[in-house]
Structure formats: C-alpha cells, structure tokens
Amino acid sequence: PLPQVLDDPHEVERSGMLNVTKIAQGGRKLRKNWGPSWVVLAGNSLVFYREPPPTAPCTVWGPAGSRPESSVDLRGAALAHGRQLSSRRNVLHIRTVPGHEFLLQSDHEAELRAWHRALRAVIERLDRE
Length: 129
Ligand code: I3S
Prior knowledge:
This protein is of the alpha+beta class.
C-alpha cells in the first residue's frame, strides 16, 4: 500500500500538544473534561489524537497508523478568546457550524498565540473559498 503521505494532500499547518475540552455538541452544552491531546491543523480540519506521533512532529497528515479521536470541519467556524469560559490562562474557543464547541489551552502563551494565528488563517482561507 502507498504510504499515508501520498494518500492525503493536505499539509499540516500546525500540530502540537494542547489541553482540550469539548464544551458543546450540536449546540448542547457539555460538562468540561480537560485533557491533553495531540492536535493537528490540516486542510479544513482540526484533528484530535490521544497521543503524539511516535517520531518527531511530522510535516504530513497526522501520525501514520494512528486513528484520530475526533475531527472537526473548520468551514464557517468562529474563533475567539476563551477568557470568559474558563479560569485557565491562554484559552481559545472554537465553535463549528454544527454547534460543536471546544476550548484549547496551553500554559505557554506564545504557543497559544501561534495556534490562534494558524487557526484564524485557515478559517479566513476557508471563508474565501
Ligand atoms: O466552566 P466551569 O464549570 O467552571 O468549569 C470547571 C468545571 O468543569 C470543573 O469540573 P467539575 O465542576 O465537573 O468538577 C473542572 O474541573 C474545571 O477545570 C472547569 O473549569 P476551568 O476553569 O478549568 O475551565
């Protein structure tokens, strides 16, 4: 079989460990359940993996051979600071069109800022498509 590299043309815009909780599913509020996740931003998707890839962060789609825990379509998504939604620092809030909402958090301010920029760029690109 072809390596996974060739199966998917989407370049990874950013990947890394973040603390994540889903706070709504289809517009229904959920109880927070913060946990670490390996997050990959690629194409029109934000993909969550339970663990980072076994090798160094790669420039291709996700860790080969591992299944994402979940994935969301960022088309039309809203991105905002999550300040009012958490007592944690450096929090981003994403709401997708179907009403799934996530908080992303890092203890490193620069890291969360970089995620904010990368997510904003992807969402703006999708808005123009
Ligand atoms: O928005 P909330 O309800 O204050 O969020 C906190 C709670 O979900 C809490 O869990 P329980 O109330 O289920 O025990 C979590 O442990 C906290 O982490 C949540 O707040 P932060 O500020 O960490 O997002």
